[in-house]
Specification:
82 residues, elongated, mainly alpha
C-alpha cells in the first residue's frame, strides 16, 4: 500500500522546487523515511540496499511500526511437558 498523493513525479517536482507536498503527505513520507533510517541503523555494520522496494517494505513490516525486534525465538520441539 502506497502513500496517496506521493507519486514519483510529485515527489521529484517538490524536490526540484516546484509545488510542495501537502502537509499530510509530507508527514507520512517523513515517518516512512524515519523507519527506513532505523532499519539501516539496526543493520549496521552491514550495508542495506534500497534497490528492492518490496524487500524493504517486508523488512519494515517485520519490524513493525513500534520498532519491535523481528528476531524469532526458537522453541524446542519437545520441552518435556505433556
Amino acid at each position: 500500500m502506497g502513500i496517496q498523493r506521493a507519486s514519483k513525479a510529485k515527489i521529484y517536482e517538490s524536490f526540484r522546487g516546484g509545488k510542495a507536498l501537502d502537509a499530510e503527505t509530507a508527514e507520512r513520507l517523513w515517518k516512512l523515511w524515519s523507519r527506513v533510517e532505523d532499519l539501516i541503523d539496526r543493520a549496521s555494520p552491514f550495508p542495506v540496499s534500497l534497490r528492492n522496494a518490496i524487500l524493504i517494505k517486508n523488512l519494515l513490516d517485520a519490524i513493525g511500526r513500534d520498532g519491535a525486534d523481528p528476531r524469532v525465538e526458537f522453541l524446542p520441539f519437545n520441552d518435556g511437558s505433556k
